[in-house]
Amino acid sequence: MAIECLVLGAGQEVGKSCVVVTINGKRIMFDCGMHMGYKDKRQYPDFDLIPDSCDFTSSLSCIIITHFHLDHIGALPFFTQNRGYSGPIYMTYPTKALAPIMLEDYRKVMVDRRGEKERFSSEDIVECMKKVTAVDLKQTVQVDKDLQIRAYYAGHVLGAAMFYAKVGDAAILYTGDYNMTPDRHLGAAQIDRLQLDLVITESTYATTYRDSKYVREREFLKAVHKCVEDEGKVLIPTFALGRAQELCMLLDDYWERMNLKVPIYFSAGLTIQANLYYKVLINWTSQKVKDTYVTRNAFDFKNVCSFDRSLINAPGPYVLFATPGMIGGGFSLEVFRQWAPCEKNLVTLPGYCLAGTVGHKLMSAKRPTQIRLDEDVQIDVRCEIHQLSFSPHTDAKGIMDLVKFLSPKHVILVHGEKPKMAMLKERIESELAIQCYYPANNETVCISSTHHVEAGASDAFLQSCLCPNFKFSKPNSERDSDLDDSNKRTIVCDDRVAQGILTLEKNQNPKVVGQNEFMEVLGVENHGVKFAHCCPIYLPDSESRDASGRSPSALLRLIFEQLSRAFPGFDLHDCQEQIRIRSFVGSFCSKEKCLHRTDVSLHSRVTHLCCSWSLADEELAWKVLSIIKNLELANAS
Ligand SMILES: [Zn+2]
Ligand SMILES: [Zn+2]
Ligand SMILES: [Zn+2]
Predict the structure, then answer these.
(1) Domain 532-629 belongs to what topology?
(2) How far is the CA of 177 from the centre of ligand 1 (A)?
(3) 213-387 fold
(4) Confidence tier at 115 by pLDDT (50, 70, 90)
(5) Per the database record, which ranges form the Beta-Casp domain (predicted)?
(6) Stretch 207-224: mean pLDDT, rounded?
(7) Phi and psi dihedrals of 227, rounded to 5?
(8) Cα-to-centroid distance, 419 and ligand 1 (Å)
(9) Which of 39, 435, 493, 536 is at a distance of 20 to 30 A from 422, taking alpha carbons?
(10) Could you tell me the residue ranges of all domains in the chain?
């Protein structure tokens, strides 16, 4: 039994998340994302590497999408409408509601404004979403008779979920993106203590430790406030969903408190529509938002209105949310080109920007700087840049906490940067003693999976388990000398040990049996070590009147009497011509040259008692023998 993980995307990078996991013959695709930083074939996962790629519908048992971010869902319409996958697709209700907005927003940006080749159309998005089955949190879904899946709250963005999948006894968890601490609008990830062979986790911030979020939010608000006070314009490039809502809540709140009148705009109608969804899906937000919902919906932004293009160069300060995030093109880039040369303006960047985006170039550049867009276009960047240091991703502590809590047998890191992943792998292996991997794209990791076998137990074994094994101990007398007697109680503990042998017989269930039964199961006789000694008994001279004519049976009776006196508590038997005490057996030896005889005396009046015993009665046997050797024959009658 094995679990095979083929990483088609987000291997040692962030972007186009896609992991194909085969568990006991069932194949699941987790996420079907695109890479925003590439325009060539690296933009999509290499689906041809999936086994039996001529027919994805029969090759894959299902597709699971964790959340609506394009690096997790961006390639889905292409995969279903262009590559012909028509099997089941699962995602949460909010993801199903919000994903089409996200996909359509992206399609417009790329095709309408950047003039790129269309990978999928609006109809493709609609047709693709028709194939999706929405699931609730903690609802166990039976995909087929062997495969079970379940979603858990992941924080991160509205509707984001971690997914648990189980086939037979093998189980895994794929986290997608998650946050272990609540933010302004969403709660922290929540998961049950599951029995897992494997956890596949994101590792965007594999080595980052974050301090209080409050301080970092204040820095952001201060930067924005200062800019608008100085008559500057603030550009906040974001995607339509997620960060936009969080920052909107933050600003709206601040505007209220500070009584600011400077307008806040949303660039596209789409984002306003997204806010509507957030209002409807209030159940998926943070406890705080839910608690205050009765008096006021936190997504009813008082100070936010939609933007009109003609306002781009209007005089006076304002704040503008524009898509896409990271200034990857589209409207946010258009605005950036016009505002960047002015020192009064401010541009905020998220904590993480993909390689290839303007945001990424700005992150590492010192200002003032120049950014080359293409052959003919170069932008003078003189505006302020503020990098947001709060993020909807978990930090390193959160990843370690989750892995420690779940304690799976193996961990695979995806969705991170290679050097940081290497460091986190070291920590997981050394601190938690869990095997960890961080495969590159198109690599496969194979791990063994759990297979439980039910074993029976014999009655004798069960009975032996019930036998108490008391151990008594007195408290340390020296240390407790000043305690009165009532406190010097004896400590009793029951150290039960069940010892048995696991047997596996052909065509039968395994069974645990007791040690004694085992020989019976094998159908062989017990081999034991036996000791033997042919003990000489020297009889008195023929002249002695008492001993003459003593028959062997009379002699035996004499021995028996003496032994009974020496071992009063023992069960002695003198059946026929033998003496028995436990495993000790003695009988007269008539053999001329007995092998167990050691004396070579040629005494004329000697008889031999051939004795044998097992190892357990070694001590007893030698006591018996010494009594026999020193028999007081003369006194016997
Ligand atoms: Zn995400
Ligand atoms: Zn992601
Ligand atoms: Zn003998």
Answers:
(1) TATA-Binding Protein (3.30.310)
(2) 5
(3) Rossmann fold (3.40.50)
(4) low
(5) 244-362
(6) 86
(7) -65, -50
(8) 21
(9) 39
(10) 6-209+392-448, 213-387, 456-477+489-522, 532-629
